[in-house]
Write a sequence for this structure.
């Protein structure tokens, strides 16, 4: 609840108005190829600015949207979580229907009201990201949704590198340069690579093989996933690099070889656990 004090002139009486404060929690999906990332940026269309535009229809007092995880320009989500506060109590079904009807690239998966102490980022216990990629020529309609990696994809070598990530480590070497300082220790629960068939939409008899890397962790640094995948792909592209070189990156916590972040197109924030 919010408490608003009013002091009447000429006496010492203080009136306290109690204003209800509701904590709305949304799980959303979005097509990141249409946004300059998830968080608000001046003069740019972001997930936050676009979603807020639709929510203001109901919530005139809405201020900040608190996201569970920050995503870059071009990065997608199938299970991003966010919360915001408002003094308005609105029917949840109406909110979901309105946003999903009017927004082309953001959809609300679920919406609820929780206790005031729930915080989409601080209350999160685990997060899952996945990365779709291929070294094949992709249909044009997949170019914004699957990373094109021009390497020989060695599943065994990639899985060996992913195994190095399991457990608690200092991931500072994979954080974007210039990111705000804080603890860079993170815990990775699971990391794996798998292949699957994708049916080509324009030809029901044709399918292509795509690769998916899934990583579960308690939290991730800014651009950490794309950087560590970029390092793994670099190791796959060089004959004189091995899993040991990737392990040295993590242990020595410095760039012993150059690598670029993996393309944003294939990255998805899939799920948040609370």
């Amino acid at each position: 609840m919010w408490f608003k004090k009013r002091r009447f002139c000429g006496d010492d009486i203080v009136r306290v108005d109690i204003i209800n404060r509701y904590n709305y929690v949304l799980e959303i999906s979005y097509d990141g190829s249409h946004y300059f990332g998830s968080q608000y940026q001046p003069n740019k269309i972001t997930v936050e600015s676009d979603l807020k535009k639709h929510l203001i229809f109901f919530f005139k007092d809405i201020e900040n949207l608190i996201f569970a995880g920050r995503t870059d320009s071009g990065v997608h989500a199938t299970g991003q979580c966010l919360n915001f506060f408002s003094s308005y109590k609105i029917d949840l079904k109406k909110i979901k229907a309105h946003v999903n009807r009017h927004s082309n690239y953001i959809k609300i998966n679920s919406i609820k009201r929780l206790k005031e102490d729930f915080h989409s980022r601080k209350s999160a216990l685990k997060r899952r990201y996945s990365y779709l990629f291929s070294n094949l020529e992709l249909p044009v309609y997949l170019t914004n949704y699957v990373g094109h990696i021009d390497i020989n994809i060695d599943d065994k070598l990639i899985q060996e590198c992913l195994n190095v990530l399991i457990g608690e480590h200092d991931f500072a070497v994979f954080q974007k340069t210039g990111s705000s300082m804080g603890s860079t220790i993170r815990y990775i629960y699971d990391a794996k690579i798998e292949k699957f068939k994708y049916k080509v939409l324009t030809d029901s008899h044709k399918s292509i093989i795509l690769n998916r890397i899934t990583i579960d962790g308690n939290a991730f640094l800014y651009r950490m996933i794309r950087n560590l995948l970029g390092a793994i792909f670099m190791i796959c592209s060089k004959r004189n690099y091995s899993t040991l070189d990737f392990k040295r990156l993590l242990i020595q916590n410095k760039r012993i070889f150059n690598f670029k972040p993996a393309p944003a197109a294939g990255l998805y924030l899939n799920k948040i656990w609370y």
Remarks:
- The chain has two domains: 20-114, 126-273.
- The mean pLDDT is 91.
- Helices lie at 47-55, 92-102, 155-165, 224-237, 243-252.
